[in-house]
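testing teh design pipeline on a random one, pls ignore if ur not involved
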């Protein structure tokens, strides 16, 4: 038997499998024939937001997160004073794609960090006062559920009951999720969480966590901490170290995108993992980015939002940057959030400018 030829055939087949698997990535883990990475992207327009009706004396509104859902954009804003302390419950706006405000909601807590939509429910994760005048975290955040059909608002989790503020949620199913909880600087950990009954599980055993991402294809939770961890079946099955501390992590299909920073320089990398074994193929450092940046996966595409440089970086399936577009903001060190409508429109919210830029993804 010609083992050299057999090896060549096996490697070729394996690479084809990698390409096919990565091309099948999607935000909702569905299969269709539109997810190819031979795409281009261009700026289309900007959606202005008229927030004059929601102004409060002594506070300023900031746009923290956006999500597109069933033809509408949901914008999460928090009220902060001059010292960047929260002053009122977080504001959630339901708007159409031209900027008209259709409905508004208030969460039951302050200082929204993230919103997620699942089963027509919008979940608001508020962190409350993260650092008070004594340099401590008073634990006053929580999770609010907004039923988008009825508008009913309920508390899912009060941070005081668990001794930590909710920072990020990653859904496994309509009722089960992984929850990143924050107690203070360098003290954040991950638990299983049931959004129906509010039950919080035990710490899974990894601390000093900065971000998490659940991958439904490989049924694994990726965790950014002092290392990069793959958690599956109740155990850490893989870990690796990047050059700099990992600040954000985004896993979809066969790839996991990381952004890394020591606050003076930044890089991004990609881990390839088909889920065929516990060990991913390899971690690849891809290139330099601004030290304040985070990765995202929207509508079958990877993106990096360079907060400090005000850029949107559009990536191929293997993590190569193919476009860097300016976000046309007037603020340095802005913060951005991103969502998509599944039909080629990518929405990027500007925290300081209170606008939503629209980019159009098209086939080449």
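output:
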């Amino acid at each position: 038997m010609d083992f050299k030829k057999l090896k060549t055939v096996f490697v070729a087949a394996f690479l084809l499998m990698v390409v096919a698997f990565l091309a099948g990535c999607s935000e909702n883990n569905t299969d269709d024939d539109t997810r190819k990475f031979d795409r281009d992207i261009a700026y289309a327009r900007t959606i202005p937001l008229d927030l004059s009706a929601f102004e409060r004396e002594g506070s300023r509104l900031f746009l923290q997160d956006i999500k597109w859902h069933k033809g509408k954009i949901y914008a999460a804003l928090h009220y902060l004073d001059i010292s960047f302390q929260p002053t009122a419950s977080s504001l959630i706006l339901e708007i159409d794609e031209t900027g008209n405000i259709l409905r508004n909601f208030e969460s039951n807590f302050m200082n929204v960090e993230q919103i997620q939509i699942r089963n027509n429910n919008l979940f608001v994760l508020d962190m409350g006062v993260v650092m008070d005048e004594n340099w401590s975290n008073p634990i006053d955040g929580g999770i609010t559920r907004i039923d988008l059909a009825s508008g009913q608002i309920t508390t899912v989790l009060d941070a005081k009951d668990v001794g930590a503020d909710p920072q990020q949620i990653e859904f496994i199913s309509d009722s089960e999720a992984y929850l990143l909880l924050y107690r203070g600087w360098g003290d954040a950990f991950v638990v299983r969480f049931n959004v129906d009954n509010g039950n919080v599980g035990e710490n899974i055993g990894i601390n000093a966590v900065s971000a998490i991402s659940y991958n439904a294809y490989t049924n694994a939770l990726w965790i950014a901490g002092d290392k990069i961890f793959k958690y599956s079946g109740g155990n850490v099955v893989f870990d690796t170290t990047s050059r700099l501390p990992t600040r954000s992590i985004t896993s979809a299909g066969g790839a996991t995108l990381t952004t890394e920073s020591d606050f003076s320089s930044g890089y991004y990398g990609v881990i390839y993992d088909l889920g065929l074994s516990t060990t991913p193929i390899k971690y690849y450092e891809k290139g330099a980015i601004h030290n304040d940046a985070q990765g995202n996966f929207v509508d079958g595409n990877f993106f990096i939002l360079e907060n400090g440089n005000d850029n949107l970086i559009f990536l191929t399936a293997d993590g190569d940057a193919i476009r860097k577009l300016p976000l046309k903001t007037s603020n340095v060190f802005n913060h951005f959030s991103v969502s998509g409508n599944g039909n080629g429109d990518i929405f990027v919210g500007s925290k300081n400018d209170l606008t939503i830029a629209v980019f159009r993804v098209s086939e080449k």
